[in-house]
């Protein structure tokens, strides 16, 4: 995202200037930047979840687990879900992203609260700016929250089952191999859940900001 979006925060406003390649998309640059940031994080974490599930399938005595992971059906379902999630995020951020024409006014209102704030150059630039007054912001927050919670539940469950399976098959591995498998599984689980924690925080914060803006 450092190349495509290259967001330049306009603190304390809930937004950033799009300085990357996506700025050439014009009015739509902010929406696609939102989508790129959220989806890239989601896909990175989902890929790690798949890695954990693959390790789980390899350790099973029943070969059908591994066959399912490697089957064309699994790949099709995975890509279908990815396409669906992408469609939903594009639709959602079209609702949550403030129109570029309204951003100068929003920044001016923010300046009244923070007179020492550095005023960004608006003309000729495009900004990611979350409209927390929109009812769709709570839906966006919920979508992010639920997605990351689901990934966290799946990863924690898989890691737990893998560790149990490793313990059962401990005699089949050398001490060094067993230790390596165990360490890699724990490290991957921690890595996934750290990312999930950030996503859960983002979703919760988005929903809370909408609530505090409207009630």
From TrEMBL:
The chain crosses the membrane at residues 35-56, 68-93, 136-163. Pfam families: 7TM_GPCR_Srh. It comes from Bursaphelenchus okinawaensis. This is 7TM_GPCR_Srx domain-containing protein. InterPro entries: 7TM_GPCR_serpentine_rcpt_Srh (IPR019422). PANTHER family: SERPENTINE RECEPTOR, CLASS I. Keywords: Membrane, Transmembrane, Transmembrane helix.
């Amino acid at each position: 995202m450092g190349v495509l979006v290259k967001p330049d925060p306009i603190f304390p406003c809930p937004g950033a200037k799009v300085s990357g390649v996506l700025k050439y998309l014009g009015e739509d640059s902010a929406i696609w930047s939102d989508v790129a940031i959220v989806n890239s994080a989601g896909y990175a974490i989902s890929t790690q979840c798949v890695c954990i599930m693959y390790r789980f399938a390899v350790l099973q005595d029943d070969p059908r687990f591994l066959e399912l992971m490697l089957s064309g059906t699994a790949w099709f379902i995975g890509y279908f879900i990815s396409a669906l999630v992408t469609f939903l995020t594009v639709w959602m951020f079209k609702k949550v992203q403030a129109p570029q024409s309204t951003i100068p006014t929003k920044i001016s209102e923010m300046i009244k609260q923070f007179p020492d704030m550095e005023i960004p150059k608006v003309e000729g630039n495009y900004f990611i700016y979350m409209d927390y007054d929109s009812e769709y912001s709570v839906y966006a927050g919920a979508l992010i929250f639920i997605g990351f919670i689901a990934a966290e539940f799946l990863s924690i469950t898989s890691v737990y089952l893998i560790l149990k399976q490793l313990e059962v098959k401990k005699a089949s591995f050398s001490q060094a191999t067993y230790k390596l498998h165990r360490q890699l599984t724990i490290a991957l689980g921690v890595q996934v859940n750290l990312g999930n924690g950030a996503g859960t925080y983002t979703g919760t914060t988005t929903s809370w900001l909408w609530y505090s803006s409207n009630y």
